[in-house]
Design a protein that fits this description.
Layout lengths: L1 H35 L10 H66 L2 E16 L2 E17 L2 H17 L8 H14 L13 H20 L6 E4 L2 E4 L11 H23 L5 H12 L4 H12 L34 H4 L1 H10 L14
Antiparallel strand pairs: 1-2, 3-4
Helix pairs in contact: 1-2, 2-6, 3-4, 3-8, 6-7
Length: 369
Amino acid sequence: MIKIKQENQEGAIYKFGSGLSLFFIGLAIILFLILLFPTFFPEKYDYTKLSSLGSTATGFISPIVAISAAMLTFLAFWVQYKANEQQKNDITIQRFENIFFEMIRLHKENVNEMKISGYGVLLGNSLEREKGVLTKSTESKIQTERFVEGRKVFVSMIKELTACYGFCQEYKSLTNDTELLKIGYRLFFFGSVSSSITPNEKDSDIISKMRIKLKKIRDDHKKELGLKTTFKDIQGDIDLHIKYAPFTGHESRLAHYYRHLFNTVKYVVDKEKKGIFDYQQSREYLKILRAQMSNDEQLMLYYNYINGMGSKWEDEENKFFSHYRMLHNLPINRVRFVENPRLHFKKQIEEIELETNGSEQMFESDDKI
């Protein structure tokens, strides 16, 4: 897009220069023909008198030629100057794109390298026969090592976080919904046994109870090697269909992932602010980045933001979600427990509709509540 715009500007410069050159060439030819005209009718003109006319014409044409030469010289320098500026800008954009696409490559590597060590089970059946007759059948379970890798990690994380939110609902009466969900997210992110969760006096009782509760669930899940996928709770049955020990934390995976993703977006926006390219081109670059993210990644990004740990994505300084649409493909129908994105971003949605006359919306799946 930038390249097309630059080529159009360059074409306009050359077109103007060519037109000006043709104008002065044409003017010179016309003046030359006027001076040459008397030679076609020698019997009608006294050449002794034409010498003064020639001197007058020379005096008239010389300034025009001098001015034309000066203008063409200026135009040549101006075109060269613009070409140099264009070359510098092209080099700057090329350097930016080299770094940007390298950051995208690293983002994909971050996702592909994600791995959670878990467990699976092989079911066996031993048969005992006596004189050819089946007398006993014994089922056996053999634990195997199993890994959740790549984008599938985010699929499992969504299930685990949603289950954690569900288990937290038992303590709704002890605090408000917002604080309860923040506690639930911290337990999911850091792990229920992590010392990084430093409760204040108000939340200490809830966190202590949740630690005990989640430990019991984790022990039951490990004991059954992941075969038990439904846990009964006060709020009803809660699904926890994952193949690793739940609530052990994902800080080592997600912290680096979010940090790199945030810095990539900020890198693009900072270059736009410096005037290297405009807002629309910035949006095009970020569309390429967003295209690398699965729906589950965008869903996790929203959960991280709404619970306060990723608040810098959308604040007074940064408008990465609203202005740059980094949550455009968010699967809103899958958001559970936390505030609906359409309600949370109601003001931003109205601003986008006003600025674009309704031609754009913040979310792909519609902005209507």
